């Protein structure tokens, strides 16, 4: 049972524009995520998905536009974001490999000076079937377990807005099913979830709405069914195949970003 949406979106991105030197990475990006809603941000490589996350977290400074969290301007610092109820997972996980699983999951609670940190951390580990690994150094675990530790660390602060960067990447089918279950459960508590993901089946399974970026602009948004039928989305992905086929045949890099340097979107 999902929480009814509140009137103020948990996350509002309005007219976002980000440039890296001569490269316009995002232009006029608008979207919102409400409490209890799961929104997937998809698009070909280099479309600007991670840049949106980085702008939401204050890691990159927009040239134009605003990011509001719970109706207020987004805090610029990591501790401010945590206090505002924002958690994020990273593509590279960002775990402290030499620290135990439990110590990793305690980190946000230590920053927040939270009460009953140990109990909360152990609860999250139990929910993600990691409790038996609590005393193992995080760096010694296989990738799917390390990925769950990163998720437990993001969830331990009971975020109101959860940002997941490629949560299904590198996981097998059973782990992806378990992840989908976790995302549904977290959204069911009223948390707004924004995820960046390439795994189409996972996105279709968990997302209430999908926002499609291409060359830094929103080219489609709506329900998974509507977006799947959208000719602009199909064209964007077919275009990627064409660009990649050319790039791969001429160089070792198939990344689309290389095809857009110096261009504007
Ligand atoms: N720090 C940076 N400096 C310069 N250019 C950057 C920087 N970060 C991203 N870019 C460029 O901005 C564009 C958008 O990159 P971004 O990583 O947001 O895309 P993405 O959609 O997340 O791609 P992927 O799916 O490959 O992760 C790309 O052309 C990328 O090369």
Automatic annotation (TrEMBL):
<dbReference type="Pfam" id="PF00005">
    <property type="entry name" value="ABC_tran"/>
</dbReference>
<dbReference type="GO" id="GO:0015188">
    <property type="term" value="F:L-isoleucine transmembrane transporter activity"/>
</dbReference>
<dbReference type="GO" id="GO:0005304">
    <property type="term" value="F:L-valine transmembrane transporter activity"/>
</dbReference>
<feature type="domain" description="ABC transporter">
    <location>
        <begin position="11"/>
        <end position="240"/>
    </location>
</feature>
<dbReference type="Pfam" id="PF12399">
    <property type="entry name" value="BCA_ABC_TP_C"/>
</dbReference>
<keyword id="KW-0547">Nucleotide-binding</keyword>
<keyword id="KW-0813">Transport</keyword>
<dbReference type="InterPro" id="IPR051120">
    <property type="entry name" value="ABC_AA/LPS_Transport"/>
</dbReference>
<dbReference type="GO" id="GO:0042941">
    <property type="term" value="P:D-alanine transmembrane transport"/>
</dbReference>
<dbReference type="InterPro" id="IPR027417">
    <property type="entry name" value="P-loop_NTPase"/>
</dbReference>
<dbReference type="GO" id="GO:1903805">
    <property type="term" value="P:L-valine import across plasma membrane"/>
</dbReference>
<keyword id="KW-0067">ATP-binding</keyword>
<dbReference type="GO" id="GO:1903806">
    <property type="term" value="P:L-isoleucine import across plasma membrane"/>
</dbReference>
<dbReference type="GO" id="GO:0016887">
    <property type="term" value="F:ATP hydrolysis activity"/>
</dbReference>
<dbReference type="InterPro" id="IPR003439">
    <property type="entry name" value="ABC_transporter-like_ATP-bd"/>
</dbReference>
<dbReference type="GO" id="GO:0005524">
    <property type="term" value="F:ATP binding"/>
</dbReference>
<dbReference type="InterPro" id="IPR003593">
    <property type="entry name" value="AAA+_ATPase"/>
</dbReference>
<protein>
    <submittedName>
        <fullName>Branched-chain amino acid transport system ATP-binding protein</fullName>
    </submittedName>
</protein>
<dbReference type="GO" id="GO:0015192">
    <property type="term" value="F:L-phenylalanine transmembrane transporter activity"/>
</dbReference>
<dbReference type="GO" id="GO:0015808">
    <property type="term" value="P:L-alanine transport"/>
</dbReference>
<dbReference type="GO" id="GO:0005886">
    <property type="term" value="C:plasma membrane"/>
</dbReference>
<dbReference type="InterPro" id="IPR032823">
    <property type="entry name" value="BCA_ABC_TP_C"/>
</dbReference>
């Amino acid at each position: 049972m999902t929480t009814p949406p509140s009137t103020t979106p948990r996350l509002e991105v309005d007219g976002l524009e980000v440039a890296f030197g001569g490269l316009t990475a995002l232009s006029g990006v608008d979207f919102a995520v409400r409490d209890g809603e799961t929104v997937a941000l998809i698009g070909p490589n280099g479309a600007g998905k991670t840049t949106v996350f980085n702008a939401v977290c204050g890691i990159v400074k927009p040239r134009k536009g605003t990011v509001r969290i719970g109706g207020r301007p987004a805090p610029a610092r990591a501790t401010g974001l945590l206090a505002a109820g924002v958690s994020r997972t990273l593509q590279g996980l960002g775990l402290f490999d030499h620290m135990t699983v439990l110590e990793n999951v305690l980190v946000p609670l230590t920053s927040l000076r939270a009460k009953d940190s140990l109990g909360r951390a152990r609860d999250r580990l139990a929910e993600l079937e990691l409790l038996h690994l609590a005393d193992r150094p995080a760096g010694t675990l296989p990738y799917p377990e390390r990925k769950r530790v990163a998720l437990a660390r993001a969830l331990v602060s009971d975020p109101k807005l959860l940002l997941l960067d490629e949560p299904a990447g590198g996981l097998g089918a059973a782990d992806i099913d378990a992840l989908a279950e976790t995302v549904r459960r977290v959204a069911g508590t009223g948390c707004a979830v924004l995820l960046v993901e390439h795994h189409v089946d996972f996105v279709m399974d968990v997302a209430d709405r999908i926002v499609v970026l291409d060359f830094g602009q929103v080219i489609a948004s709506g329900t998974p069914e509507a977006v799947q039928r959208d000719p602009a989305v199909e064209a964007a992905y077919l275009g990627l195949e064409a660009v990649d086929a050319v790039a791969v045949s001429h160089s070792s890099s198939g990344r689309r970003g290389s095809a857009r340097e110096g261009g504007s979107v």
